[in-house]
Structures are given as C-alpha cells and as structure tokens.
Design brief:
This protein is an all-alpha fold and 283 residues long. It has one domain. The protein is 79% helix and 0% strand. It is built from eleven helices and no strands.
Amino acid sequence: MHIAFKQAGAMAAIELTQEPLRRPRLAFATGAVIGVLGGLIGLGGAEFRLPVLIAFFALAAHQAVRINLLVSLVTLAASAVARFGFVAFPDLGTHAAEIVAVAAGSIVAAWFGAGLLSRISPAKLMLLIAVLLFAIGGLLGFEAAFGDQMAGALVETLPLRIATGIGAGVGIGLVSSLLGVAGGELIIPTMLFVFGMDIRTAGTASLLISIPTVLVGVLRHYRGGAYRSQQALATLVLPMAVGSVIGAILGAALLPLVPVGSIKIALALILVASAFKLARKAG
C-alpha cells in the first residue's frame, strides 16, 4: 500500500508540472471562438474549452481541468466588470436566501472537490469528464428545446428553498472542481426553473456564485502546486484568457443577430460528440 501511495504521489507531481504545447496563437484563437459561443449562449464556454485543452495542447486530464479553472476565473472577472460596470445591478433581495445557500454549498464542495481531483486516476477522470460533458450537453439541448415552456418556482417555502439551494450548490461545486468550469450551465437553469428568477437576475446570481466557487478551486489547486509553470501561464493561460474575454464581448454583441436556440442545439451535439470521444480515449 505504501508503494501505491508513492506511485499516486509521483503521478500527481507529473500532472502538476506537465507543460502544454507552445501554441499561443492557437490558444488565443480557440479562446476567442469559445468566448463568442459562450457570449451567444450566456455561458463562460469552459465546457467547450476543456476538450480543446486535451486535444490541441496535449494536456492530461488533471492539468487540463486546473488550467480550465484558471481561465474560467479570468473570464468571469471580466464578465463581472462588464456586467456590473455597464448594467444596473438588479434587486436580489427577494432571492438573497437561496443565492447565499447555493453559494455556500458550492464553495464548500469546490474546496473538497479540488482535493478529490488528485485522487482520481487519469482514466477514471477522463471517463468522468465524458459523463459530465454528456450531461451538460443534454441539459443545454433540453433548455434550447423546452426552456421557454418552463417557468415559475418549483420550491416555495423558505426552509425548503434554502435546503434545496445548499444541495444544488454542492453538486455545482463538485462539477466546477472536476471540470474546471464556472458552473453557469447549472446555476442559471437552477435559478430559473427551481427558484423562479427572471433571466437577468439569474445571470447576475450566477456570477455572484461562480466567482467565489472558482476562486476557491483555483486557490486549492495553487496550494497543491499548480500554476507554477511560467511557460503554461505565458503561452496558454494568458492568450486563451484574453481571447475568451474578447470573444465573449463579441458574442454578446452578435446576440440580437443570431438564432440562439439553434446554436444551443448545435453546441449540445458538439458536447455529446466530445463526450463520446473522451470516453473512447479513456477506454
């Protein structure tokens, strides 16, 4: 057993120090394209970024998740500046309890989930990523097809809303840690369909929950030795983050001109196809 722990520790060290391929232009370009798609569908795009990190930059699953989380944090920060700098802050008073509940569950789960990541073998993590991407793709397609037909809060009483919020937050925090995503693809539908928020309030709540959740995951990974490669930061994280921010702004500008429902369905199919590819690779 002692040998097994030593081998696991050696594997974690390799994962933390693995260098990506030096493709800063490709990093910027893929970040921009994913940013545009994210801006169009109202998400950060991290679920699409993760397969790209694995396929085009030769990152193993563990390091791809950590890099994805860091780029997600930068993109979220830029989104928050844009949203709160140019748009009036909505009144969240009537939904404060559930927002705090979801955030609390998400932050705690993100801390433990980030620690759990290093204990999962590469093959199992790849399979888990495939399953989660498949689920997110299905959720995105369902929202595109039936989202307009669903409205109103499913949970009415305050104690139940708080309990439901904490439970949902735990799931969101775990997905954030294990995929390196902000969690908006789960937070926004939860706020819309479970707690009955309007889309603008749900988007703001998503940022308020996502930023501390992702920050906790990044700090946990940093404490574990991640993000110390200057090459990875300079040639991958920085150009991809800049591209993501620019793309997100462009995607938001194109929003009135593009049929978002059709794009969501197309992207859901892309996520499902990516999930099957990663599952085969894991096998």
